[in-house]
Amino acid sequence: MSTTKKIAGAALAAALGVSTLAACGGATKDKDGAAASGSPKSKTITLVSHDSFNVTESVLKEFEQQSGYTVKVLKSGDAGAALNQEILTKGSPRGDVFFGVDNTLLSRALDNGIFTPYEAKGLADVKPEYVLDKQHRVTPVDSGDICVNYDKAYFADKKIAPPQTLDDLVKPEYKDLLVTENAATSSPGLGFLLASVGKYGEDGWKDYWTKLKANGVEVVDGWEQAYNERFSGSAGGKKAKGDRPLVVSYASSPPVEVLYGEPQPAEAPTGVATGTCFRQVEFAGLLKGAKNEEGGKALIDFLIGKKFQEDMPLQMFVNPVVKDAKLPEVFTKHGVVVDKPENVAPETIAKNRDQWVKAWSSIVVK
Fold first, then answer.
1. Which member of 136, 154, 177, 366 has the greatest number of CB atoms within 10 A?
2. Are 21 and 271 contacting, i.e. CB atoms less than 8 angstroms apart?
3. What is the pLDDT of residues 231-272, one digit of tens each?
4. 28 with 54: CB under 8 angstroms?
């Protein structure tokens, strides 16, 4: 997923050769020939997002036919880069709706006032623990867990139990086995840092990372390099002869390895250490100054509708936030349920994120 992302499950799918929907480019035109991005009568909704946004074409077409709108997706890099561009263009946004701001970046977005409050239709169906903004400037759309993944074959061959908790990772038997992403440049890297803050508190996380550094943790720039080059358990990592059997990725990564494996394995080749996780929640918001505000509201309603919510897991490899949305069988069979992920309040993250990352860098990458 961030990037994200994102749950970079979409990036994992791409790494395994799966194409994604891309609806980028110049301004489209409505049926009367008016420039869609500039006409008051525009029937185009522009969704600004990180690169991992994806939706089944038929699902999107159904929304377009029912609503009378056309959706243009403007993909803008990872979540942090996309958000920064919207902050820089505050009041004159590049689109109508922004999707992809998560709880690690939420306070930055809200403090910069880039969203117009809107209480979406269907919000009552969203699980209340995901509604983090009571003013409804943003609407929760999906959730996912950043977790350490492990190579099942490696630990079976070595006759070593795979780690299950953050405490396990600093034990001698796991020395020189873990690769993680840079918290300063990667969404999962930052999420893993926040997992340690949630677990050990503001007074204990630095000591934890000092121990992890002494135990041989490797740091790379981003998820792609960590998962598809250094991790021995992924399809990409096997091809690249990766030699790290532990990696910071997502709880949804094992189902993706099954879904796009060639041949498709009966069991996921990777597992999840469920005691190492940090929960991400992604939001969508109506951009202040949107040229098509009514269309933007309709799109946000669609994003938390059951049709999109049930399509989303196999498109972006994240979990629905709507109470009655069903997960696909590959998720329920090969995925894991993370009962107690670590969490840090968005306002605490906003207040401390920069100094935490700076301190982390001085400990781990100096």
1. 177
2. no
3. 999 999 999 999 999 999 999 999 999 998 888 999 999 999
4. no
DSSP at 310: H
Amino acid at 203: D
Buried residues in 176-208 as b, exposed as e (16+ CB within 10 A): ebbbbbbbbebbbbbbbbbbbbbbbeeeebbeb
139: cis peptide before it, omega within 30°? Answer: no
For the chain, what is the largest distance between any 2 Cα atoms, rounded to a whole number of angstroms?
68
Distance CA(96)–CA(156), nearest Å, equals: 50
Exposed/middle/buried for residue 349 (C-beta within 10 Å: 0-12, 13-18, 19+): buried
Measured distance CA(74)–CA(5) in Å, rounded: 16
Please state, in angstroms and rounded to a whole number, the distance separating the CA atoms of residues 301 and 139. Answer: 9
Under 8 Å CB-to-CB from 319, ≥6 apart: which residues?
Answer: 142, 143, 144, 252, 313, 327, 331
Angstrom distance (rounded) from CA 284 to CA 332: 26
Strand 270-287 vs strand 246-250: parallel, antiparallel, or unpaired?
unpaired
Where on the phi/psi map is residue 183: left (φ > 0), alpha (ψ -120 to 50), or beta? alpha
pLDDT digits (tens, 9 = 90+) for 296-346: 999 999 999 999 999 999 999 999 999 999 999 999 999 898 999 999 988
Q: What is the rounded distance in angstroms from the CA atom of residue 311 to the CA atom of residue 54? A: 10
Instruction: Note whether 147 and 318 are within 8 A (CB).
Output: no
Distances in Å between the Cα of 288 and the Cα atoms of 127, 154, 166, 232, 273 are: 26, 51, 41, 45, 40
Task: Tell me how far apart the alpha carbons of residues 288 and 114 are, in angstroms, rounded to a whole number.
Answer: 5
Residue 50 — pLDDT band, cuts 50, 70, 90?
confident
The four Cα atoms 294, 300, 305, 311 give a dihedral, to 10 degrees, of 130
